[in-house]
Design a protein that fits this description.
Elements: E1 7-11, E2 20-24, E3 29-35, H1 39-42, E4 52-58, E5 67-73, H2 76-84, E6 94-100, H3 107-124, E7 128-129, H4 142-158, E8 188-192, E9 197-204, E10 207-210, E11 215-217, H5 226-238, E12 241-244, E13 248-251, E14 255-257, H6 260-268, H7 274-277, E15 279-280, H8 287-296
Parallel strand pairs: 5-7
Antiparallel strand pairs: 1-2, 2-3, 3-6, 4-5, 4-6, 8-9, 8-15, 9-10, 10-14, 11-13, 12-13
Helix pairs in contact: 3-4
Amino acid sequence: MPTGRSVRLFLAEGTPTGILTAEIVNWTGHVLSAPRTRLETALKRSELKKTGIYILYGAPLDADLPMVYIGEGDDISTRLSSHARDDDKAFWERFIAVTNKDMNLTKAHVKYLEGRLITLLKEAKKSQVTNKTDPNFDRLPEADISDMESFLEQLQLVLPVVGVDFFRKVPSALAGNFGGDSAETPTFTIQHKRKGISAIAKEIEGEFVVLSGSTGDLREAASFYERLKNLREQQLAVGKISKVGDQSFELLEDIAFSSPSAAAVFLFGTSRNGRTDWLVEGKAMNYGEWKEHLLKE
């Protein structure tokens, strides 16, 4: 069973859209999230006077993926003030500042974390990385590297809680037991020869993950949801799927969806009910029937 964790969120201005902070109980790290429109207020906070790393991000209307920049500094507030005047970084709408409550993050530590986060961004392929350099800081003692990797692991738990999910890779289907259930979740399949669709999926950590090697139909109906149409175009752009002839595509990597229906729509290019489309491998039931069976247990 996965271990439960407590995350403390504090709405510093009493609103969910303003400045907020996040901490994990028994973790020395501290995360501050704020919109760019509240930058002048955030800069007055003591957390931003510390050594740490920061993440600038936004989703311009003409961009398929969110744009992200990662930086570090001895005094985060001065770096953020500088970026606010930088026309080359006009894209960002929010920022995250990561510091340490114990005041023991050094310049070497944050340079290491900066490089690791840029690597994670590129591996996840969920954003456009705007950093022009690819730092690989490896001058830390082995013990410090271990500490920073542990710090980074906790940070990756907190970031999705404050709305930053572009560092996280799709959960691995090789992990064995998914979602903390006592029994492994089944494999789900869709086979539609006429449309060239042959897909396999798993439920992993609350997401419906279509596995690499699955194929879908490139043709798009009028009922194809705009959000999933854009997602398909993004996945083609970053190389997670590739065209096979004129009418089909293949997943080159696992892709996670919020529901089985979203996954089915992505594959078919038209409105679908994933609860009936996806069948439980080796059993005479669909996804919806399997879920109903679990509710009765």
